Amino acid sequence: MRYSIFSLLGHALAGNRRWTPAWRDAAPKAGYDIVIVGGGGHGLATAYYLARMHGITNVAVIEKGWIGSGNVGRNTTIIRSNYLLPGNVPFYEWSLKLWEGLEQELNYNAMVSQRGTLNLFHSDSQRDAFVRRGNSMRLHGVDAELLDVPALRRLVPFVDFDNARFPIRGGLLQRRGGTVRHDAVAWGYARAADRLGVDVIQNCEVTGIRVERGRAVGVETSRGYIAAGKLGLACAGNSSRVASMAGLRLPIESHVLQAFVSEALKPVIPCVITFGAGHFYVSQSDKGGLVFGGDIDGYNSYAQRGNLPTVEDVCEGGMALMPSLGRVRLLRSWGGVMDMSMDGSPIIDRTPVDQLYLNAGWCYGGFKATPASGWCFAHLLAKDGPHPLAAAYRLDRFAAGRVVDEKGQGPHPNRH
Ligand SMILES: Cc1cc2nc3c(=O)[nH]c(=O)nc-3n(C[C@H](O)[C@H](O)[C@H](O)COP(=O)(O)OP(=O)(O)OC[C@H]3O[C@@H](n4cnc5c(N)ncnc54)[C@H](O)[C@@H]3O)c2cc1C
Question: Looking at residue 416, what is its pLDDT?
Answer without folding.
Answer: 85
